Amino acid sequence: MQSEELTLNRRKFLALGLATGAGFILGAPRFAKAAQIYPYPVLPYAENALEPVISAKTMGFHYGKHHKGYVDKLNSELAKPENAQYAAMTNLETLIVKVAGKKKAVILFNNAAQIWNHSFYWNSLKPGGSQPSAAMQQKITEAFGDYAKFKAALADAATSQFGSGWAWLVLNRGKLAILRTSNADTPLTMKGYTPLLTIDVWEHAYYLDYQNKRAAYVAEVIDKLLNWEFAEANLNKALAGGKPH
Ligand code: MN
């Protein structure tokens, strides 16, 4: 029985290794654990790189505990037999869209979407900040009137989101727009919307640094950390017919 299980696990592991294109090294200890289908995404900068706006301490918990927690939970859920149909998928975006709105798959959705939202958020921030290009400025003016109005609209969405959630800059029908989502909800599952930038407004994103002052955190992030190169790359991909990531 034991050796049969080992063989099955080994076969599954090999299949997953091939399916994800991940390299692997043969070795007994690797077959003792369930395969990690979704890797823990690498933070695109050091944990202290966003200081003083977001402290290394916040990043240590936010990336090190919360983001990792979603990855671990998703992988352990996918190891359950009842989730075998979803474990066969190896693309996070495909999985998110597939399980969105399904009552029986709410744990999978929440954890998968939170993995994706957090990776998108880390990329939406740039140490030292950035400025929108002339082309992006034009899109901003076209949609909001001017940059100050865009900032006010994004800050308003981020501060008025009741409870946990996200504020987003998105592309919809060729035009920039702002929206907010609750909990793990993401524009990825909204037809016609392409996310360009996001701000995490869950309390874990700011409480250690700003306590209850969400508006102060949001204002600092908008003024000092937005990654306009990332937004523009997403915009250009969307305009060319693709989705970001
Ligand atoms: Mn978060």
Number of domains: 2
Mean pLDDT: 88
Question: Are any ligands bound, and if so which?
Answer: manganese (II) ion
Please compute the radius of gyration using only Cα atoms.
20 Å
> What is the count of β-strands?
3
Question: What brief labels describe this structure?
Answer:
3-stranded antiparallel β-sheet, Helix Hairpins, 3 strands, binds manganese (II) ion, single chain, 245 residues, 2 domains, minor pseudopilin epsh fold, 10% strand, mainly alpha
Brief digest:
By secondary structure, the chain is mostly helical. It has 10 helices and 3 strands, in the order αααααααβββααα. The N and C termini lie far apart (43 Å).
What does this structure look like?
- Strands 2-1-3 form a three-stranded antiparallel beta sheet.
- The protein contains ten helices and three strands.
- It is mostly helical and 245 residues long.
- The model is unreliable at 1-33 (pLDDT under 50).
- It starts with a helix and ends in a 6-residue tail after the last helix.
- It is globular.
- Manganese (II) ion (MN) is lined by residues 62, 66, 118, 200, 202, 204-205.
